[in-house]
Design goal:
The structure holds 2 protein chains of 2 kinds. Chain A is 52% helix and 0% strand. Chain A has 8 helices and no strands. The longest helix of chain A has 17 residues, at 51-67. In chain B, 26% of the residues lie in helices and 17% in strands. Chain B is built from 13 helices and 16 strands. Chain B is globular, with a radius of gyration of 22 Å. Classes of the chains: A mainly alpha, B alpha/beta. At the A-B interface, helix 5, helix 6 and helix 7 of A face helix 5, helix 7, strand 4, helix 10 and helix 11 of B.
Chain lengths: 168, 530
């Protein structure tokens, strides 16, 4: 029953608008569609648990076309971004962002695209895989400072004798 | 699990009617007290609200680990600070598991400075701050700092070698040198650079905040708790949510009431109770333990239980570079600059702060770098991910009476117990310090060629302090200089709640040092029969 309702309310057209919305709200030119598609599905899966979110998302996505004067998915990047800025406080858009900021950046393809390598322990950590391979700066000291200077813990003017009687 | 396996895992069973030392919480404070007392032959029961996660259970995945171990029971954040808007149900990021927040602590172990134990004397009557000198000094604590560093295996201390420089540290330390800082190093840091104390050297696998699968990082889950169990004097009861600490007609503590995993209520008799549930759960438990003798909450005749909540003045700075950094590789916080950790009011604020390397994965960076942000400005930060270096600013925040943990009458946890509310507002001194830290971090990163920096607001608090502070006089605070309640014999607090003021340093080392000192005192008191 719930599934039938979901099928009927999140139409392919609405899902398409959602994917487009995500790409405009979180623009990464080098990303393919995969991470955005999976994020859209994560948003849709989340609304199944809540009648209110389901209704709000459905209505919100449908009305994007109205706000776009026909077809939100057909707007260019600048026009679509401008439209989204105008509805920043809309509940359905805030809900989408709340799910998207977690899902999009928890996606393993996203990690790869951003240059993040994910789990490391099973591969022996980074001890032999580049934990210190940065070569555009000199190798810094790792020991504590052993020179002649002492860290002055309390400035002269802040010594208790110097501040006695004063009320900050 | 059969009876033998259970004994190996969780220790010799202790009868519910046997009056023992009952310790609530198994983190830096509770785990240390359990280890110290059982090593002296004193029988203990450790009640831990979370599960017993083992290194093989830990996840190399930020959200998976968060959902596995973070304390996610109902809580509320209130007050004008930004966190209350961005994360209204997550005032703190702490761990609910055996080992407590030592499971996900980063590892930085600076000591508090002499002047920081005397904040009232040095800072004077700063308006809006509820300052007080500690009832102990650095001299009192110094021998226990030694023992804590040896227990933790802090690098750069007691013959322990430094960790090597990882990529994030190379950027950080070169920038430090360029702006004239001197007091930087890869520690002191509670993770083995070489095998020590039966645990291996770091393999630079990152994921410090997710539990160390390799066990190179010290935690009470890999050291103090197993050792306490091995004495045969300790029973660990995971999945046990403390509900009330009770007292007898004379006012002395006599038991802890707690719920097991199925919600059944139990009573464990106690001759001494050590509460170490971190600075939100500890005052919550005392407030839930109100009685006719203690109508405002147990040990609250001063009215200070839950007050003076501190979370350290924090902020992060992420800097983008032309060349790759890969900040996530290696030990996350093995980089500390101490040059700003001093008192010099000519900077425009009192107290000091540390700068420490910090790295998040894309998942957490997206969630926390600028909460609520979206659009091209936001994605630019993420697009620079592998060319980004990061640091954390962590400094002393001012205790304020109105920053406090209370019971929220409108919200309950999964057991029907009142949820804690954490109310917080920055003191102007906190704001001035944070801005100073941001500007110094910018200079540091610009000195090594940063293309741009981003100032990230404070995360859900990992350093929660001060809600049951120690004081010389009973009317000024909750606990005496041993961490024992001024007004409830036998009741001790053993975590960061005891801190009279917060100092600049990461608190774990000091919590451990105070817990060793407290356990010694408890053992002496019990030994003499008083």
């Amino acid at each position: 029953m719930a599934e039938a309702t979901h099928e009927s309310v999140i139409s392919p057209r609405a899902r398409n608008a959602l994917v487009r919305l995500l790409r405009v709200a979180y623009p990464h030119p080098r990303f393919p569609d995969g991470p955005y598609e999976r994020t859209a599905d994560a948003v849709i899966n989340q609304v199944e648990a809540s009648l209110w979110h389901r209704l709000a998302l459905t209505r919100g996505l449908e009305s994007l076309d109205d706000a776009a004067g026909g077809d939100f998915a057909a707007l260019d990047d600048e026009a679509a971004l401008s439209l989204l800025r105008g509805i920043e406080d809309a509940g359905f858009f805030a809900f989408i962002r709340g799910v998207a900021v977690v899902s999009l950046y928890d996606d393993h393809e996203t990690w790869e695209l951003l240059g993040y390598e994910g789990a490391s322990y099973e591969q022996g950590g980074y001890l032999d895989r580049g934990f210190n391979d940065l070569d555009w700066l000199p190798s810094p000291r790792i020991e504590e400072y052993a020179g002649p200077d002492q860290l002055v813990e309390v400035a002269t003017d802040d010594e208790i004798a110097a501040t006695e009687g004063s009320h900050r | 699990m059969n009876a033998d396996e259970r004994t190996v895992q969780l220790g010799q069973p202790v009868g519910h009617d046997e009056e023992v030392v009952v310790i609530v919480g198994s983190g830096a404070g509770g785990g240390t007290v359990a280890h110290e007392l059982t090593a002296r032959g004193i029988r203990c029961v450790v009640l831990e609200a979370g599960p017993y996660l083992k290194p093989e259970d830990y996840e190399n995945d930020e959200w998976a680990a968060f959902n596995q171990m973070a304390w996610l029971d109902n809580r509320t954040a209130s007050g004008p600070y930004r966190l209350a808007r961005d994360f209204p149900n997550l005032p703190a990021w702490i761990v609910k598991a055996v080992g407590g927040s030592t499971t996900h602590w980063s590892g930085a172990t600076p000591r508090f400075r002499e002047y920081e134990f005397r904040a009232r004397s040095y800072y004077g009557g700063l308006e809006g701050a509820n300052l007080l000198d500690w009832p102990i000094t650095l001299t009192d604590l110094a021998p226990y700092y030694d023992r804590a560093e040896i227990a933790i295996g802090s690098t750069h201390r007691h013959g322990r070698p430094p960790l090597p420089a990882n990529n994030n540290y190379k950027v950080f330390a070169n920038g430090a040198e360029k702006v004239g800082y001197k007091f930087y190093a890869t520690g002191p840091y509670g993770t083995n650079a070489e095998p020590y104390d039966g645990r291996p050297a770091s393999i630079q696998d990152g994921f410090n905040f997710q539990g160390d699968k390799h066990t190179s990082k010290w935690s009470t889950a890999v050291r103090e708790i197993p050792r306490a169990i091995a004495t045969g004097k300790c029973e660990l009861r995971p999945g046990s949510q403390a509900v009330q600490v009770t007292h007898d007609a004379s006012g002395r503590v006599d038991a802890v009431l707690y719920l097991d995993e199925d919600g059944n209520l139990h009573r464990q008799a106690a001759k001494v109770v050590c509460v170490a549930g971190n600075s939100i759960e500890t005052p919550r438990l005392l407030l839930m333990s109100a009685s006719a003798l203690h109508p405002d909450g147990l040990a609250n005749s001063s009215g200070q239980v839950g007050r003076n909540y501190m979370r350290h003045t924090t902020g992060s700075v992420y800097a983008r570079f032309e060349q790759p950094v890969h900040m996530y590789r290696g030990e996350t916080m093995a980089g500390i600059i101490a040059d700003e950790a001093r008192l010099d009011s000519s900077r425009g604020f009192l107290g000091g702060y540390y700068m420490e390397t910090l790295a998040l994965g894309p998942a957490f960076l997206a969630a926390f770098v600028e909460p609520g942000s979206w659009g091209p400005q936001f994605t630019t930060i993420l697009d620079g991910y592998d060319h980004t270096a990061g640091m954390w600013i962590v400094g002393e925040d001012m205790p304020q009476e109105s920053n406090r943990v209370t019971l929220n009458p409108a919200v309950q946890d999964q057991w029907g117990l009142p949820a804690p509310d954490v109310h917080f507002q920055d003191h102007p001194n906190d704001v001035a310090m944070r801005e100073h830290g941001y500007s110094r971090a910018d200079l540091l990163y610009e000195a090594v060629g940063a293309l741009g920096t981003h100032h990230t607001p404070p995360y859900p608090a990992t350093h929660n302090l001060g809600t049951c502070r120690m004081s010389e006089r009973p009317e000024d605070g909750v606990l005496d200089k041993w961490g024992q309640a001024h007004d409830v014999p036998g009741l001790f607090v053993s975590d960061g709640s005891v801190m009279t003021t917060g100092a600049a340093a990461n608190p774990t080392l000091t919590i451990v040092a105070l817990a060793i000192r407290q356990a010694e005192h408890i053992a002496e008191t019990l030994g003499s029969g008083s």
